[in-house]
Amino acid sequence: MLRFDRQYGAFGGETPISFMALDGYARRYGIEGEAFERFLAFVTALDDEWLEHVARSQSQKTDE
Length: 64
Prior knowledge:
mainly alpha; 2 helices; Phage_TAC_18
């Protein structure tokens, strides 16, 4: 599970999943070459969306 490879800040912020974690996952499951490039692009895009969602959710909580 890659979600456990992200860092969490002292005030609740989350960082992107590191390249090293994604690379390790891909190596474990034999994702190489162009498949790795697609994997990296897709997971990075999903992770970016997740981080935006978390930021919006935290912003809404502080506005209440």
